[in-house]
Design brief:
heterodimer; A: 111 residues; mainly beta; six-stranded mixed sheet; B: 114 residues; globular
Amino acid sequence: GQSLEQPSEVTAVEGAIVQINCTYQTSGFYGLSWYQQHDGGAPTFLSYNALDGLEETGRFSSFLSRSDSYGYLLLQELQMKDSASYFCAVRDQAAGNKLTFGGGTRVLVKP
Amino acid sequence: NAGVTQTPKFQVLKTGQSMTLQCAQDMNHEYMSWYRQDPGMGLRLIHYSVGAGITDQGEVPNGYNVSRSTTEDFPLRLLSAAPSQTSVYFCASRPRGGVKEKLFFGSGTQLSVL
């Protein structure tokens, strides 16, 4: 099976940088993905790391280290609209098509 | 394209009542799934389907039934609602190819069981 751990809440000011860590335990592993969910909204896909290293998409970057069973989502130049919950997720080789989510990190951006 | 459409958006049930949450997608996605979301617990997989006529259980299947008679539709049935099923329910889909971690979610159904 899998378990994913991420912090429950992070607060930062506009323009700052926030790093959301995700540690996982799986019996097999395809890669690490990240989703964003605004209050009252649906989760939306942000990124996917199949290989070790950093993937950059605009102000957001995602990192994976398979040897450390660890990844993070980096939010740069924070904007008010980035206030949302962020979930890491893994698809386990033993679990086939099932995508398992972490508990989510609520990011609050203050002026 | 409408994407993934869920109905209803809100529903209140009494304990013991039954109902069906509807999910439809117009993207010809083979994979469809149902998640429930409770505060602080992320999204938990209830049931999923890899194609018409094929369904399988997820992490929390008890109390829920599904069927997949067409590629487009994947309804979730609550046979006898319980207060523990109060939650927000999301339907999600993805195509056969591409990144299997990239799901497309519907807007959700907020269900309260009294």
